[in-house]
Design goal:
The chain has 251 residues and is mainly alpha-helical. Helices cover 76% and strands 0% of the residues. It contains ten helices and no strands. The chain is globular.
Length: 251
């Protein structure tokens, strides 16, 4: 009985994994973009010099953590929403509702695959940073992992919300871009959160990726992430998940 119960969901997961591997755009945005950007930034000489404004850290030390966030943001907002919305647009979800496979299995498979892809990219970025640019690995491993999982949950929930709001795959891409650039800014891609003016920093850390930037940075330095940052991440993950569940439509 157990095999019968789980086989439809497993079949969906396998099918989605095959489709995911065959889509070069998904593979680039989920697995290629952050590591490539890390190599480019690490090749800039000034990024490998200590910066007094960052407490003696090098810019590359800070940007490894920022690109970890970029990996999660990109996967949540650029990879998953167009796929889910495209399935709805083409009536695939409606047809699935007439089979033993529930549409929720497809949503779970997509979130799982994209979440795993994002975490693999995170490991690649940390490895490149360590081997190529001598960036220390996170010293508070458990706290880093907790902050990372909460950030992944928030990013995927935001992607699910975009999928709920968009009626077509093209609209999902457009709405995703509306959230994409502010998310990158709050993560510190253009200006590290540590270097922001006080008022801006206090505002940014109330956003999911601003809080994530601080939490990951603290764990990397060997401190337990502040509970305020973890609380912000957890709150955003819950609120975005509830909103996505409230507005998501299978047809």
């Amino acid at each position: 009985m157990s095999t019968t119960t789980h086989s439809p969901g497993v079949a969906v997961l396998r099918a989605e994994a095959r489709l995911f591997r065959r889509e070069p755009g998904n593979l680039f945005w989920a697995l290629g973009f952050p590591p490539v950007l890390l190599v480019i930034l690490g090749s800039i000489t000034s990024f490998r010099q200590p910066d007094e404004g960052l407490g003696g850290l090098r810019l590359i030390d800070v940007y490894v953590q920022i690109l970890v966030l970029v990996a999660l943001i990109t996967t949540g907002l650029q990879t998953m929403p167009p796929v889910l919305t495209g399935y709805r647009e083409r009536g695939i979800l409606r047809r699935m509702s007439a089979t033993p496979v529930r549409p929720s299995a497809l949503l779970s498979a997509q979130m799982g695959l994209n979440g795993v892809a994002a975490l693999v990219t995170v490991l690649v970025c940390l490895t490149i940073g360590r081997l190529a640019f001598d960036v220390p690995l996170p010293q508070e491993g458990f706290g880093y992992a907790l902050a990372l999982l909460l950030t992944a949950a928030a990013a995927l929930a935001l992607g699910a919300l975009v999928s709920a709001l968009a009626k077509t795959a093209r609209m999902a891409t457009a709405i995703g871009m509306v959230f994409f650039f502010p998310s990158l800014f709050s993560a510190g891609l253009w200006l590290p959160v540590q270097s922001m003016p006080d008022m801006m920093r206090h505002i940014v850390v109330l956003t999911p990726f601003g809080a994530a930037s601080q939490a990951l940075g603290q764990a990397s330095a060997g401190q337990w992430p502040a509970w305020s940052h973890l609380g912000v991440l957890a709150a955003w993950a819950i609120v975005l998940s509830v909103a996505a569940a409230r507005w998501f439509r299978w047809e």
